[in-house]
Amino acid sequence: MIGALAGAPLAVAAAPRAHAATGSPSEARATLWIAGDSTAAPKYADAAPETGWGMALPFFLGRRLTVSNHAVNGRSSKSFADEGRLDAVLAAIRPGDLLLVQFAHNDEKAEDPTRYTEPWTTYQEYLTRYVQGARARGARPVLLTPVERRRFDAGGNALPSHGEYPAAMRALAGREHVPLVDIQALSLALWQRLGVEETKRYFNWTATEQDNTHFNPPGAIAIARLVAEQLLAQGVLRPRETRRLDEEIPEEWITWPAA
Predict the structure, then answer these.
(1) Does 14 have pLDDT greater than 50?
(2) Do residues 146 and 188 lie in contact, with contact meaning Cβ atoms separated by under 8 Å?
């Protein structure tokens, strides 16, 4: 999952910010910070049409919320923290902000000691650093299980691909009393409803690539909608802090900045 943003700078000022509506940054009531991997990360023009769901999240948020998307291609809960990226976010996060944390795709890579974590030990230990760091600064952590890949068996059944990582995150969220957005379960159910062929429209399938992990604009919009819906349902966001949850979002609203 290492790609165009693998070498993204650590400086918070360099991270893409997206305002949910027009207005100056000073008008924002709070910032939603995203720490995660390439499924959430912002993409540059040379990666289009690949789209992280964090790029679409502002379309569903009220005008006083800002998204600061620090997700980076190829990172795990361990490597994101070990590279100083978590420290950079925590240095800038403010009381009342949200820290959305989604990792596991790269934590699963047992062949890479710089990224691998074991679900019930080191994965939970690293996630706890995100939770405690946010809380120590008056911010609210939210854990997101990893979004599912496009995997089907011969009978057309959508298959889970993340092993015990989602269960380990659910257990940690319960133990630490952290809001949990179970995107793994929700996305798996969505892929099942859509089916083998229709899901190709949601992933980064192009004339030259058949990518069953990363999204194109429809997929990113669909997952961002699920995230916003769950943040509202769990009381993390209030009704006036969300919008367009039942509306179609035009694909052309997605834009990819130049590198």
Answers:
(1) no
(2) no
